[in-house]
């Protein structure tokens, strides 16, 4: 078999005349995901919170803002408007407005209407070949790969049954250890309330005191009506004290015997 029988038809391997995408590898994780902060270039899959900007103070919000109390009010201006006789000014006579000049019948050229008013034959133009067709490299026969006919993953062929060899399982075999089977205590008893009528349940809690006033109230023995002098006449009261004087000599007791 000669080397010329390998290729199909007249196609032979040659150097590509332009760039082919298959010759370059993928850039990988080179492209970054859009950010979740800021206003511009925000990730459309994420929620965007309201954004507020801090701007500079404007010098003048509008052209008709008030100048404040720093200007002089004319004497003929009152609270109801301008006071005084009407004033007139002398101006030159305005120019006459130019009238619209209606075009006559000779201003129209119906023979130049072209395709808008008459049927016209198709017209074709000759131009150079665009640059986009020069880079279109049609792949050769060797660029295509037929699917494999071996194994279970065949596309258009019927595959034979496949068998795999694995180790023997201990479950269900002759050397299975039956002592490891669960006993009766392994299973949890089902609550009868699941498949029967559920009786009422009561809980034992502490006694709760009734709400009320917990402040201490004075009894009958805590009051002294005989000491009340606000609703009756009070007699004068005198106290017996010791008379003091700065001229009385102090008592000197001679303790020496």
TrEMBL record:
Transmembrane segments: none
Record region (Disordered): 84-114, 198-229
One Pfam assignment: SHIPPO-rpt
InterPro entries (alphabetical): CIMAP, SHIPPO-rpt
Coiled-coil residues: none
An annotated GO cellular component: cytoskeleton
Protein's name in the database: Outer dense fiber protein 3-B
Organism: Salvelinus namaycush
């Amino acid at each position: 078999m000669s080397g010329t029988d390998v290729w199909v038809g007249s196609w032979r391997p040659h150097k590509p005349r332009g760039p082919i995408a298959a010759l370059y590898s993928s850039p990988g994780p080179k492209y970054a995901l859009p950010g979740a902060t800021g206003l511009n270039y925000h990730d459309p899959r994420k929620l965007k919170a309201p954004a507020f900007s801090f701007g500079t103070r404007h010098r003048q919000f509008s052209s008709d803002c008030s100048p404040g109390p720093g200007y002089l009010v004319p004497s003929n201006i009152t609270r109801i408007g301008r006071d005084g006789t009407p004033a007139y000014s002398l101006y030159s006579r305005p120019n006459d407005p130019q009238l619209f000049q209606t075009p006559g019948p000779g201003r129209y050229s119906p023979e130049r209407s072209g395709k808008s008013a008459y049927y016209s034959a198709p017209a074709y133009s000759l131009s150079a070949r665009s640059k986009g067709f020069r880079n279109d490299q049609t792949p050769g026969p060797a660029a295509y790969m037929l699917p494999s006919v071996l194994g279970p993953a065949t596309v258009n062929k019927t595959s034979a049954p496949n068998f795999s060899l694995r180790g023997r399982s201990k479950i269900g075999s002759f050397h299975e250890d039956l002592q490891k089977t669960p006993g009766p205590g392994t299973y949890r008893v089902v609550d009868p309330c699941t498949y029967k009528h559920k009786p009422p349940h009561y809980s034992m809690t502490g006694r709760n005191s009734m709400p009320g006033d917990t402040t201490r109230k004075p009894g009958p023995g805590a009051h002294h009506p005989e000491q009340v002098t606000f609703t009756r006449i009070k007699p004068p009261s005198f106290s017996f004290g010791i008379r003091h004087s700065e001229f009385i000599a102090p008592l000197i007791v001679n303790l020496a015997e």
